[in-house]
Amino acid sequence: MEDKKIVYSGIQPSGSLTIGNYIGALKNFIGLQDEYNCLYCIVDMHAITVAQEPKDLRKNTLDVLALYLAAGLDPKKSIIYIQSHVPAHAELGWVLNTMTGLGQLQRMTQFKDKAKKYTDVQAGLLNYPVLMAADILLYQSSFVPVGEDQKQHIEITRDLAQRFNSRYSETFTIPEILTPKVGARIMSLKDPSSKMSKSDPNKDGYILLLDSEDDTRKKIKRAVTDSSGEFRYSDEQAGLKNLINIHASFSGMSPEEIVKKYENLGYGEFKEDLGEVVVEGLRPLRERFKEIREDKAYLESVYKEGAEKASYLANKTLRKVYKKVGFIPR
Ligand code: TYM
């Protein structure tokens, strides 16, 4: 690998991806590939922190891989791999677990939210951010492109890196979060006070990357706005603001330009156009996905090669860590 800074990110294969995942993360992965050495992971070990049907997990893992490729990730430029193929993640995760305060994990918003939803909360859900820290730190990553909801997890990653470095000696690069200017937090189309999420029981709340074009248009038409009728980009009109953010992410226009264009046209026309902007924006990805997803041999060659390259880098860091904590080298 050339001497460029490292970018690292991952997405869970726990169901289909939404346009929230796309706008907040995946879309931004693409442009980083030329300037940085990028690693993009499919974090199947994170996905099992809530119960998964094994056959669905297998399918979803390959779906996410095919979506990565369809969106424009290039295995010639970036390392694309599946987390469970690189055992060093679990190994570094264990070491970091021994240095993480229980209180800090219990304060994580995502843990608190998920713990509310499940009656039987497992230790893996609590320790989830530690595994995420291991993902990032194994590769000496400088930047982590993610949505706003991952902010606390990046903070804990930085804390752990600093703690390890000061307890032993300089070992880990301290990573920084990279969030998009617009769209770092895409909200539910039905309830703009909650994040767009594939686990939303109301299917109209989210648009999946693999939804049909018709469903995409319909869901946008049914999205909540407000009764003021005014076309403004403001927190008081959270539903409209969210739709403007989605538009801006796909069209490249700024929220101000969008307001100017639609302030005299109204919500109906805006939603009509937004439907087209999203459908057009996703069309190439949706078309490529079908082709790539059917080519099992290609998918396999990508994840095998990715795992090999990732393992090499991960093991370099893991060996240092093991030595510093006092394990006897093999
Ligand atoms: P996950 O799988 O929940 O989400 C994948 C990415 O999508 C972003 N995202 C959103 N962005 C904007 N609006 C939304 N409504 C929205 N919903 C999701 C997330 O912020 C994320 O960037 N813990 C991570 C996966 C992970 C990871 C890592 C990420 C594991 N190890 C190492 C970076 C580096 C997660 O659960 O993402």
From TrEMBL:
Keywords: Aminoacyl-tRNA synthetase, ATP-binding, Cytoplasm, Ligase, Nucleotide-binding, Protein biosynthesis. One of its GO terms (biological process) is tryptophanyl-tRNA aminoacylation. It comes from the Bacteria. It is an enzyme of class 6 (ligase). It is found in: Cytoplasm. ATP binds at Q12, P13, S14, G20, N21, G147, E148, D149, I186, K195, M196, S197, K198, S199. It catalyses: tRNA(Trp) + L-tryptophan + ATP = L-tryptophyl-tRNA(Trp) + AMP + diphosphate + H(+). Its main location: cytoplasm. Pfam families: tRNA-synt_1b. Its EC number is 6.1.1.2. GO terms for cellular component: cytosol. L-tryptophan binds at D135. CDD domains: TrpRS_core (cd00806). Belongs to the class-I aminoacyl-tRNA synthetase family. Homodimer. This is Tryptophan--tRNA ligase. It comes from Peptoniphilus harei ACS-146-V-Sch2b. The gene is trpS.
